[in-house]
Amino acid sequence: MAAVDDLKFQEFDDAANLLAANPDATTISIDEPEIPKNQHSRLQEPRREEDDELLGTDDSDKTELLAGQKKSAPFWTFEYYQTFFDVDTYQVLDRIKGSVFPVPGKNFVRLYIRSNPDLYGPFWICATLVFTIAVSGNLSNFFIHLGKPTYHYVPQFRKVSIAATAIYAYAWLVPLALWGFLMWRNSKVMNIVSYSFLEIVCVYGYSLFVYIPTAILWIIPEKVVRWVLMIFSLCLSGSVLVMTFWPAVRDDNRRIALATIGTVVLLHALLAVGCLAYFFDAPELDFPAPIIPARNGTTVVTKSL
Amino acid sequence: MAASEGGVDGGPLFAGLADVSISGDIPVEGEITVPVGSRSPDEDYSTLDEPVKDTIMRDLKAVGKKFVHVMYPKKSSALLRDWDLWGPLVLCVSLALMLQGGSADSKDDGGPQFAEVFVIIWFGAVVITLNSKLLGGTISFFQSLCVLGYCIMPLTVAMLVCRLVLLAGSGTISFIIRLIVVVAMFGWSTLASTAFLADSQPPNRKGLVVYPIFLFYFVISWMILTFTPQ
What we know:
Chain B: It is found in: Golgi apparatus membrane; Membrane. The structure holds 2 protein chains of 2 kinds. Chain A is mainly alpha-helical. Chain A contains 13 helices and no strands. The longest helix of chain A has 31 residues, at 158-188. Residues 31-69 of chain A have low confidence and may be disordered. By secondary structure, chain B is mainly α. Mean pLDDT of chain B is 81; it is low at 1-5. In chain B, helix 3 (86-98) runs parallel beside helix 6 and helix 6 packs parallel to helix 8. The longest helix of chain B has 26 residues, at 172-197. Chain B has a domain at 77-225. Chain B has 8 helices and no strands. Classes of the chains: A mainly alpha, B mainly alpha. The A-B interface holds A 78, 81-82, 84-85, 87-90, 92, 120, 124, 127-128, 131, 135, 138, 152-158, 290-293, 299 and B 102-103, 105-112, 116, 131, 133-136, 204-208, 211-212, 215, 218-219, 222-223, 226-228.
């Protein structure tokens, strides 16, 4: 009888098979809440996006709606730029925490930015870094030369503008170049993950945060300590960058992918080494005190790392 | 015209004229202008005719009142409502002048030049104001500039004290005195400006707005502390 058959327990097929048989069926899936459902990444199967809309999880709904509504003001109005500062204090602190303690395997952009890139973090982290490097360099030079009789303390204020130029150029031009390069490669190879320009600026800005405590600790006039600190901070911030950009290039030609990642890390290292070399005098070497001009106007400067 | 007198006997005005119509060929005479002697509010703000001393004294009094507000920062809206930039200009120029005469052995390693101090203060204040407006603050552009400029006053006082202390000598003790004074004034400036500006920000972004103010006054304090005379 049909009734008896109906009462027999039926083994349910795998969800995928069921859905393949009946594609329009309503499906529900329960996921852990902290895995972000990001609409950019096309790694997820299309079925998941349906689930998101049906479940109505706040994040996906909001990001879907907001992604459509954000940045709709024309670029000459003030509101357009306000959309780049749409962050709260705890969000900025979370992003900073995520850049200092990178979790292996988790992408910084996916986890923290989530299609809400902000310009607050990059701008003010760069400003803080500029002044931290200038002040720390000045302090460290002061302590190194403290006992010497010919030493006359100078504030070296000109170095602030040099530091500002270097760091802001790095934090804005390198993301521009990287974004252009990724866009170019995207047109040739269909990459699954792609970032907007602001997201790249965001990653670079927040990854520079770890250099702030490093620069403060560089006051310690020991060469070994300084190099250990530099390598440590380079690893931390470099890993944030690598984990962000590896998914964007890994589908490309192997050599190009490795070359891109290598260039990113190399430029990052160059910034750190350059700052250490230029702003912090070497501790042990004995050389005449900086910039005491002789009467005839020539100046003697010797510096080496 | 008899009708203009009030109804003395208690009757309504113009009672007898209910059916009078004025034909077009009766000339109308008399003064049509409104006498200027009325007590309209605009009258009090017409300052064109007052003596110059009054004008200057009024502005000076406003500036002085704001200085007093900075010295005893309470949440008053007087500083915000009637903004002016005279005070910040005077403070900025005097601070930049006092930072001159530093060790100018070579251009590259000396202290900040006049133009650099000026640019840092004004450009820094503009950037902080833009930052607070972009984060959704309700304060107006010039009000914020006014507050930030006036709150430089404690640091200008600190600079004055530092120069006087440096006249006496530049050893360790003078450095410690200068350090204490500058740190105290830096704290005062930051607290004063935060007291005025923090209320106009959305509550979950106060930290984001206060931090750049802290950085701004820190940089100015650093310039003051590292000032060494030739």
